[in-house]
Amino acid sequence: MKPGEQTKKQPEQDNKTEWKNNRFLILHNDDNHSFDYVIDALIKVCEHDAEQATQCTLITHYKGKCDVKKGSFTYLSPLKNALVARELTATID
């Protein structure tokens, strides 16, 4: 190896590790809460801005579910619990 040259990681290993650690926090439609309530929850729990929270809420309403956050299970678990504590239906896939 020449001075100043950096070693490169195997892309296959990076992709496998990244895929393994990436999960999705899924919000499911429940027809029980107002749009404003769900938008507010996404802003507070997932730190969405108002536009992103509104879009996720509309997708959830019309399609039945929406992935609202991506990350490791460890990162997503407290977010899921916070949404469930607000009586919203959420899963990690």
Q: Could you describe the 3D structure shown?
A:
With 93 residues, this protein is an alpha+beta fold. The protein contains four helices and three strands. Helix 2 (35-46) packs across helix 3 (50-63). It is globular.
Secondary structure: helix percent? 40-55%
Q: In one word, what is the shape?
A: globular
How far apart the termini lie comes to: 42 Å
Mean pLDDT: 87
Based on secondary structure, the structural category is alpha+beta
* Biggest sheet descriptor: 3 strands, antiparallel
**Rg calc:** 18 Å
Sketch the topology as an H/E string, one letter per element: HEHHEHE
Count the strands?
A: 3
Poorly predicted ranges: 7-13
Query: Treating each run of at least 4 consecutive H or I residues as one helix, how many helices?
Result: 4
What's the arrangement of strands in the largest beta sheet? Answer: 2-1-3
Topology:
Blueprint lengths: L10 H11 L1 E6 L6 H12 L3 H14 L1 E7 L1 H13 L3 E4 L1
Antiparallel strand pairs: 1-2, 1-3
Helix pairs in contact: 2-3
Q: Could you provide a short overview of the structure?
A:
With 93 residues, this protein is an alpha+beta fold. The chain has helices spanning 11-21, 35-46, 50-63, 73-85; strands spanning 23-28, 65-71, 89-92. Helices cover 54% and strands 18% of the residues.
